């Protein structure tokens, strides 16, 4: 792409680094910004900076949070004996929307994916194991999407937890194979959490 302006080229380069945004889309977005009042670009830039510089993660579940302990972990109404393992905040939001789940979460921050250079150390698995080791957790529910990476991650964690005799279960399958949790509809997702099965039997399916 030939640009008549270095400033324009630089902005397009930056925007096109976002996932799913090619150069042409980036150019369209940048030109759109140029047509808007300058304040709008300033607000956008500031919001991104604030988010990036000030974002915090719950010290217990690792979900994005404005406070040291997120609202869910801090709530006395939540059942602290059940922990649902998810990939990121989108899954927490999807499961919360079902209104069916009253336990806590553990946000991994991704899935094990050697192809992308993501190993167990890059995720919050150690902190989950520590939590189980500490003894308050009675059940761990695996709610990662049923992709190869999701399955690998579930199995890795299952093996890590095996010595501690904690109950492990998996959300009912067959509704969203290969889909992300966030795309499952609320009723189906709620049902699949309620109808979860022991993790061992989910392996045979
Ligand atoms: Zn939390």
UniProtKB/TrEMBL annotation:
Q: Which domain of life is it from?
A: Bacteria
Arranged from A to Z, the UniProt key words for this protein are:
DNA damage, DNA recombination, DNA repair, Metal-binding, Zinc, Zinc-finger
Give GO MF terms, alphabetically. Answer: DNA binding; zinc ion binding
InterPro entries associated with the record:
DNA_Rcmb_RecR, Rcmb_RecR, Rcmb_RecR_Znf, TOPRIM_dom, TOPRIM_RecR
Zn-finger (C4-type) intervals are 58-73
User: SUPFAM superfamilies given for it?
Assistant: Recombination protein RecR (SSF111304)
- A Gene Ontology biological process term: DNA repair
Annotated coiled-coil positions are: none
Domain Toprim, by residue range, is: 81-176
Task: State the function annotated in the UniProt record.
Answer: May play a role in DNA repair. It seems to be involved in an RecBC-independent recombinational process of DNA repair. It may act with RecF and RecO.
- Entry's family note: Belongs to the RecR family.
Q: What is this protein called?
A: Recombination protein RecR
């Amino acid at each position: 792409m030939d640009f008549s302006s270095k400033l324009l080229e630089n902005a397009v380069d930056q925007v096109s680094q976002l996932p799913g945004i090619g150069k042409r889309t980036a150019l369209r977005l940048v030109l759109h910004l140029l047509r808007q009042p300058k304040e709008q670009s300033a607000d956008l830039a500031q919001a991104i900076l604030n988010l990036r510089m000030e974002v915090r993660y719950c010290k217990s579940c690792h979900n994005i949070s404005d406070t040291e302990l997120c609202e869910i972990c801090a709530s006395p109404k939540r059942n602290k004996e059940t922990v649902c393992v998810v990939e990121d905040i989108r899954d927490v939001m999807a499961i919360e929307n079902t209104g069916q789940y009253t336990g806590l979460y553990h946000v991994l921050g991704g899935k094990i994916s050697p192809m992308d250079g993501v190993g167990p150390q890059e995720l919050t698995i150690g902190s989950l194991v520590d939590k189980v080791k500490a003894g308050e957790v009675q059940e761990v529910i695996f709610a990662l999407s049923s992709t190869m990476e999701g399955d690998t991650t579930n199995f890795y964690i299952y093996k890590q937890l095996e010595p501690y005799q904690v109950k492990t279960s998996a959300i009912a399958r067959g509704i969203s194979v290969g889909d992300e949790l966030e795309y499952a509809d609320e009723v189906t997702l709620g049902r699949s959490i309620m109808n979860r099965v022991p993790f061992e039997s989910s392996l045979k399916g």
